[in-house]
Each structure stands twice: as structure tokens, then as C-alpha cells.
Design goal:
The complex is a heterodimer. By secondary structure, chain A is an alpha/beta fold. Chain A has helices at about 20-30, 80-85, 105-110, 120-125, 135-140, 145-160, 165-175, 180-194; strands at about 5-15, 35-40, 50-60, 70-75, 90-100, 130. In chain A, strands 2-3-1-4-5-6 form a 6-stranded mixed β-sheet, with helices on both faces. In chain A, helix 5 packs across helix 6, helix 5 crosses helix 8 (about 180-195) and helix 6 (about 145-160) crosses helix 8 (about 180-195). Chain B has a 7-stranded mixed β-sheet. Chain B has a 5-stranded parallel β-sheet with strand order 14-15-16-18-17, with helices on both faces. Chain B has a 4-stranded mixed β-sheet with strand order 9-11-10-13, with helices on both faces. Chain B is of the alpha/beta class. Chain B starts with a strand and ends in a 5-residue tail after the last strand. The chains are: A alpha/beta, B alpha/beta. Chains A and B meet through helix 1, strand 2, helix 2, strand 5 and helix 3 of A and strand 1, strand 8, helix 11 and strand 20 of B.
Chain lengths: ~190, ~600
């Protein structure tokens, strides 16, 4: 086996479901025979702060983290977080961004402004930029919490891993009652990125 | 079987495979999930202890009695447990004893960045340092064997990146082993001065025996690449960063058994390198040893002492490679600091304290620490677990000496109170403090992710048990019943009344809040359909609701908006609105 490894950086706001999405991604990669490392943040930062989860895979992975300029795909669950983590995208890397705004406290208190026209800024900065209305899509599917699976579906498509079967992995990672809706969200994401 | 595990999960799995019988811990990021995972294996007894000292003592007793035992804690927790740690080094073990320590380079969730490898040196204990999840499993299994072979507790030292990174792990099965025989042996286990002195000789001898053992440990090995001129000595995740950054351009001496330091091995490796680098996070622990051996090397003269390392930092230091540029724009995004959650019960007690003149609030370790951020700005000091109370006592004594009349509020949480806050309260009563001592009892250890504590009535293994009554405990400590105010922090009037009464009081006062954390599953379920909404006809955009610092409330397009999904209907905003423009909707499910 000699397959080129990739770095996927998932960023967002604590509580958005980045950790579950990364879990499904790395469990899937393991089942396809890759070496995988994933690094996540627990504790205080999770309380509505800026969070990141690093997933790296290939034949052999050493470091569990992605440095600046190394992410093949940056997946931003929130628009301003995309902006914050842009320096991590590789030169020919891609940005998948959820079209959602979550105001941080300095913005709520009027001490700072939420950047305007972010979609334009982001797509100008990254030629390979995919904007997804994941929250809206998830709501249409019937559960706003599967937003993370919509985004994950898009990532899997863009990584070229969509030929693999992900259902078994999804089944092992989500509660049985939520399995169908998660699969629907995942498939929707793949379609949107296609 | 090949599975993907975090370092913490792998430690728990390894302990199980090693036939560990007893495990104890106090939760603390990044170590918390170790015991959470241990508790899922039926063969091991596991408990949340009230603090790390108790956890290590429980594990010590179990080891003395012949069981394989472990305890786990974050770096600052080992400070709390340092007292038994140093003497257990003298006593040694019967059943293997492993102390799992999790440092936090980068301070993801800690009050300092101390490097606990010095504890191994200071307490004269062997130390193992895994660099990925597979090694977490392998090393803890070996640690139990080493512990029994050398009659010593063993330190297994992790860092956040090891604890919370997942990697592929080959698992094994459990080797069941009987609890060893126990017989009374005061010369070994009762450290009276005469016995302890004899033991100290033994400890020094043991250290030298373990040094030769470490020289040939399979956990210290070299990786040689033809033609490579750079030699790298690395430990933990630093080894992974070095491998990533330097690849076959360097030779590596990977140190997994890091104390006693394998001096011979290092000297031999160094003799083959043109330039020698020591790659380690935080303190120059290995570097200091190597320099003391008279071997020239590079390390902390170039690499940072503060924060984590990365492959980019190593590449820049060793090869001079500039880090990847990535993409930048001209816009700097505003910071996104962590916050108290929507519906957090702490907010209801902190809000009446916000902006109070003549009041000084000393804080503690827990979510309420976030109250010191804008807009609440409540809390002026954070040192360690329990200090919220005792620091307030000292403040008050100093103010008295200076003739300053300011009321002291010491604030901590339920788990913190049981951990070490209660001793501060005892001191306050006995030494006649007139301060106000606030216990924000949210019925759970919240910051670390919902662990049970002595107030919740459930053990780590899921059994029902006694739930300690905080107001009664305070009364038993000597606070008068009429000076103990129990309030619902969702009732702002009641919270404000309690705060005002306490400020006016001449005697020591206790305030206990009694709302459970909004993130507890049952609470989330029961409040899932509750939310607040704004009547824009009545709203005058005064911003009173925004001053609560609730992330569910924002001002967008010139209107106040409350996110119905994250709002749990705590209704503090309803109570602060001067125009009755906010109302609570939906229903509570019991």
C-alpha cells in the first residue's frame, strides 16, 4: 500500500460537533487500512471557545497535529473561525465552510465587529472554497444537530473517499435512533460537494 | 485487535490488560477520561476520590494490601498528592502501583504549565513517557511489572497531546492475577523516623539499580539513518514532531524510560552525532542532564520553554526552515474566549455581584472562573483548588491591617468545596473571619465534563450512595444556621437579597446555590423546549439583557435576538429587562 496521506483540520465553536465528525472520519480511515492520528481539545476551551480537531492519515503518521500551511482541507463549522485558521491551509489546499455566524462575546458586547462579507473574503483568499448551508440542510433533513454530518459528507467527497462504505462506521459512532438521519445528512453533504 | 484510541483510553485499556484491581482519581483536564474509561471495565474497582491526595492514598493502601493499583491526575493534582508521593517512594509496593500524571503544555485548561518530570527526580521514582496511544497501553503494562520488580511506585507521565490524541492501537487481553498476600510489616509500611532512614538508603540504592535497568530498557532505543549528521534525543510527543520535521535527515535516540536518565546510552549516541539536539517540551529536563555530563548540545537555547512544540517549530530550530505561509487576509477576527453557557446557573449569583463596589471576590478552579471575563468581571484571583475561600481570609486580614473596609467574597463550586474548600471554611470559622463564602453547587463536577462528586449521590461505578449535604456541612463547621442562605440562582431577586444580606452581615456568612448545571443530560432534556423570546414592539434596545453575558442573546441587524436552540429558558433576561419585553415560552418536561 502506498497512498498519499492527507491533513484535515476541523475548526469551529465549542459545542458544534467537531469532535464527533472527526471521530467518524478517523474510525472510517482506520477501517480502510490507513494509519490515523487525531488530536482534539477538551476542557475549558470547549465552553463556547474557538476549538480545533486535527486529523492526519497516511501510511505512517508521526505528529498528531497540523502546523501552519499543512492542511489539505480546512473544514470550518463557523465562518469567522475559517478566517482565524486560514494560515493553516496548504498552498493548494481547500476550504469547506459552513455558512453560519456565531457571535463571540466581544461582538455581543459591541467591543468588536463581526467581519462583514466573509464569504467573499474567504473565497477570494482560497481559490478552492466550498460554502455549505449545513445548518439549513440539517434542519430540512429534520435535526439541526446533524449539521456536522452534512459537513463531514462534503469532506469525504472532497477527499475522494466517497467510494468507500461509511455506513458501518456511522452506525458505530451515533445512537441507533439517530442513525438514519445522520446517514441522510452525510449523503446530503456528499451531494453538495459533488 | 486494531482499534483507534486516545492516550487516555489506551492507559485505561493497558491497566485493565495488566490486571489492575483498584483505580482512583480526581477529575482534571487532560487526565479525566482515564478513570472514566477504567470504570467501563467491570474487573476493576474505580472511584472518584474527593481530591488527588486521597486518590493516591487509596491506591497506596490497595498496593500495600497486595492489589495492582493506579491513580491518575493532572499535573497540578500531583502537587496536592505530593505528600503521600514522596513517602510512598520510601515504602514501595506490594502489588504494583502506577501514578499517571498528565501535564498540560500549552495550558489548554490549567492555571500553570509546570513540568512534572521534576517530580521523578525529586521523589526518586522511575518515570515512563509514552509518545503515542500504543505506547500508553504498552508502557502502563510495563510500569506495573517495573513497580513490582523494583518495589517502587512508577510515574507514567503524559501530556495533553498524548492524552487527547487518537492513534491506532493493537490491544490484548487481560491477564488476571490474584491480589498478593499481605502481612503486617511496620518496617516497610510505617514510616516512623528510624524505619524511614533505613528506607532512604534503600531508595538511593534502588535508583542506581533502576538506572542500569533503564540503560537496556526497550523503551529507550535509537533510530539510525545512513549519512545523517544530526543526532536528536527526544521524549513524548516531541519525538513525533522531530520524526515529522526531520525524517531521515537525523538519527534519533527515543527516550521512553526517562528517569533515572540513561546516561551511558546518551553518551554513546552523542558520540556518533555531529550536532546533538534535545527535543523536549517545556523545561530542559533531559538537556540539563546531558549538559551536566559535559556533552555539548542544542535545546532550550533555541527551542521555546513556553507552550507546546510542533513539527514546524522543530524544523525551524534544527533546519532553519521557515514555517508554511498558508493564506492570510487583511482582517483579524475578534477573539472567541470561552464563556459561561446559556442557562448556566453560576450567572444568576455572579450577576448581582457584578459591578458591586467595596466587594472583592476571590475565585477558584471551575467554570465560574469564566465569570472574571467581561461583561460580568466578577473574580479577582485564581490560584488553585480550594484557594477561593482561604485567599479571601488572607485578603480580609490584610485589609483590616490597612484599615480598609471592603467585604470579601470567596467563591468556589461543589466539587471544589469537597476537594479542599472545606478546610478554608473551617479556618474562616475558627479564626473569626467575617467574610462571605459562596458555594456554587451545580450538582456535578462541570468543567471537566460532568463527573460525580461527594454531593451527587452516585459513584463513578454508577452505584447510588450517600450525598453530602453542603448547608449542613457548613453548619457542622460552625457557621450559624441563620447565616447560611440557600438560593435558586435562576431567581435573581433571591440571589440579590442573599448577596445584600451577606454584605451587611457582621458574622461569617455562607451562600449556597442549588441549581444543577445546564449541561447535565436530564436537565437538558427537561428544559429542551424552553426558550425566551423578545417582543420587538416593547424592546428599546437598552442592552440590559446583553450585560448578562449569555451567548444565546445577541444584537443582530439592530434587534435583540435570542437563539431558541441554545437558550434553556433560565429567564434571567426576562428578569433584567426593564420593559418586560422578554418572555419565556415552551414547557418544562419533568
Amino acid at each position: 500500500m502506498n497512498r498519499k496521506g492527507k491533513n484535515v483540520l476541523l475548526v469551529g465553536v465549542g459545542g458544534q460537533g467537531t469532535i464527533l465528525a472527526s471521530k467518524v472520519l478517523s474510525e472510517g480511515l482506520l477501517s480502510f487500512g490507513y494509519d490515523v492520528k487525531m488530536s482534539e481539545i477538551h476542557g475549558m476551551a470547549q465552553r463556547g471557545g474557538s476549538v480545533s480537531t486535527h486529523v492526519r492519515y497516511g501510511d505512517r503518521v508521526f505528529s498528531p497535529v497540523i502546523s501552519k500551511g499543512e492542511a489539505d482541507i480546512l473544514v470550518a463549522f463557523e465562518k469567522m473561525e475559517a478566517l482565524r485558521w486560514l494560515p493553516y491551509i496548504a498552498r493548494d489546499g481547500m476550504l469547506i465552510v459552513n455558512n453560519q455566524e456565531i457571535y463571540p462575546m466581544p461582538v455581543i458586547l459591541g467591543q468588536a465587529k463581526y467581519p462583514s462579507q466573509l464569504e467573499k473574503t474567504l473565497s477570494e483568499a482560497v481559490p478552492l472554497c466550498v460554502v455549505i448551508e449545513a445548518a439549513k440542510e440539517a434542519e430540512e433533513i429534520g435535526n439541526s444537530r446533524v449539521m456536522n454530518m452534512v459537513l463531514l459528507g462534503a469532506v469525504v467527497k472532497k477527499l475522494g473517499l466517497d467510494e468507500m462504505s461509511w455506513e458501518k462506521t456511522l452506525k458505530s459512532c451515533v445512537p441507533p435512533a439517530a442513525f438514519r438521519v445522520n446517514v441522510l445528512a452525510f449523503e446530503k453533504g456528499m451531494d453538495l460537494a459533488g | 485487535m486494531k482499534v483507534i484510541l486516545t492516550g487516555n483510553e489506551a492507559v485505561a485499556r493497558g491497566a485493565w490488560e495488566a490486571g489492575c484491581h483498584v483505580a482512583a482519581a480526581y477529575p482534571g483536564t487532560p487526565s479525566t477520561e482515564i478513570l472514566e474509561n477504567v470504570s467501563t471495565y467491570g474487573e476493576m474497582y474505580s472511584e472518584w476520590s474527593p481530591n488527588e491526595k486521597v486518590a493516591l492514598e487509596v491506591a497506596s493502601g490497595a498496593s500495600m494490601a497486595g492489589a495492582r493499583a493506579m491513580c491518575a491526575m493532572k499535573h497540578v493534582g500531583l502537587n496536592v498528592a505530593a505528600d503521600p508521593l514522596f513517602t510512598m517512594s520510601y515504602i514501595g509496593v506490594n502489588g504494583g502501583l502506577v501514578i499517571v500524571d498528565a501535564d498540560d503544555p500549552g495550558l489548554f485548561s490549567s492555571q500553570n504549565e509546570q513540568d512534572n518530570r521534576w517530580y521523578a527526580l525529586h521523589a526518586k521514582l522511575p518515570m515512563l513517557e509514552p509518545s503515542d496511544s500504543q505506547e500508553c497501553l504498552d508502557f502502563i503494562k510495563a510500569a506495573f511489572d517495573i513497580s513490582e520488580q523494583f518495589d517502587t511506585p512508577v510515574l507514567l507521565r503524559l501530556t495533553t497531546r498524548i492524552c487527547h490524541s487518537k492513534g491506532v492501537v493493537r490491544t490484548g487481553e487481560r491477564t488476571e492475577r490474584p491480589v498478593r498476600d499481605y502481612s503486617r510489616n511496620p518496617a516497610k509500611n510505617a514510616m516512623l523516623p528510624a524505619f524511614a532512614k533505613a528506607k532512604h538508603y534503600m531508595v538511593e540504592k534502588r535508583l542506581e539499580e533502576m538506572r542500569s535497568f533503564g540503560e537496556s530498557s526497550p523503551f529507550n532505543y535509537s533510530v539510525m539513518n545512513e549519512g545523517a549528521k544530526i543526532g536528536v534525543v527526544a521524549n513524548g510527543v516531541g519525538y513525533q514532531y522531530a520524526m515529522e520535521a526531520l525524517g531521515d535527515r537525523a538519527n534519533y535516540l527515543k527516550i521512553g524510560f526517562s528517569w533515572p536518565f540513561p546516561r551511558k546510552l546518551v553518551r554513546e549516541f552523542a558520540s556518533k552525532a555531529e550536532t546533538l539536539w534535545v527535543i523536549e517540551e517545556n523545561d530542559p529536563f533531559m538537556e540539563q542532564e546531558i549538559r551536566a555530563m559535559g556533552i555539548p548540545c542544542s535545546g532550550k537555547d533555541v527551542l521555546p520553554l513556553v507552550d507546546e512544540l510542533s513539527q514546524a517549530i522543530v524544523a525551524k530550530a534544527v533546519l532553519g526552515t521557515e514555517p508554511g505561509a498558508g493564506t492570510e487576509t487583511a482582517i483579524t477576527p475578534p477573539n472567541r474566549p470561552p464563556l459561561l453557557c446559556p442557562g448556566c446557573p453560576h450567572r444568576g449569583l455572579l450577576f448581582p455581584l457584578s459591578g458591586k463596589k467595596n466587594v472583592v471576590v476571590t475565585g477558584d478552579i471551575g467554570c465560574y472562573g469564566l465569570g472574571s471575563m467581561p461583561p460580568l468581571n466578577v473574580g479577582e484571583s485564581t490560584i488553585c483548588m480550594g484557594a477561593g475561600f482561604s485567599v479571601a481570609i488572607g485578603f480580609q486580614k490584610a485589609f483590616e491591617k490597612a484599615g480598609i473596609d471592603r467585604k470579601m467574597f470567596g467563591i468556589l463550586g461543589d466539587s471544589t468545596f469537597f476537594h479542599s474548600g472545606i478546610t478554608g471554611l473551617i479556618d474562616a470559622v475558627v479564626n473569626k473571619s467575617r467574610g462571605v463564602f459562596v458555594i456554587l453547587d451545580n450538582r456535578i463536577t462541570a468543567m471537566t465534563g460532568q463527573q460525580h462528586n461527594p454531593g451527587t449521590g452516585v459513584t463513578l461505578m454508577g452505584e447510588e450512595t450517600a450525598a453530602l449535604d453542603i448547608p449542613k456541612l457548613c453548619e457542622a463547621c460552625g457557621v450559624k444556621n441563620e447565616n447560611i442562605h440557600v438560593v435558586d440562582p435562576y431567581d435573581l431577586k433571591a440571589a440579590k437579597r442573599a448577596v445584600d444580606l451577606a454584605i451587611a452581615a457582621d458574622e461569617i456568612t455562607v451562600i449556597v446555590t442549588n441549581r444543577p448545571c445546564a449541561l447535565i443530560k436530564d436537565v437538558q432534556k427537561s428544559r429542551s423546549d424552553l426558550f425566551c423570546s423578545v417582543d420587538h414592539e416593547k424592546c428599546v434596545l437598552c442592552g440590559a439583557c446583553l450585560n448578562l453575558g449569555c451567548p444565546a442573546i445577541t444584537k443582530r441587524d439592530g434587534r435583540i435576538a435570542i437563539d431558541p436552540v441554545t437558550c434553556n429558558g433560565c429567564a434571567l433576561c426576562v428578569q433584567v429587562c426593564p420593559k418586560q419585553a422578554i418572555s419565556r415560552e415552551g414547557e418544562l418536561h419533568e
